[in-house]
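Recap from last week: sequence in, structure out.
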Amino acid sequence: MTRWTTFFSAGHGVYRLPSLPYDRFDKFILGRLWAAGRGVISHDSGC
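Predicted structure tokens:
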């Protein structure tokens, strides 16, 4: 038997598993995934 997991949309074309904990850097990780290697996160990003 296969167990199905529901994914939640975290952004345009990016999904997350609800069983994984949230992190204070999630917004930066989401930005990096969404950019697909076409951008950088500035040192002045506020983390």
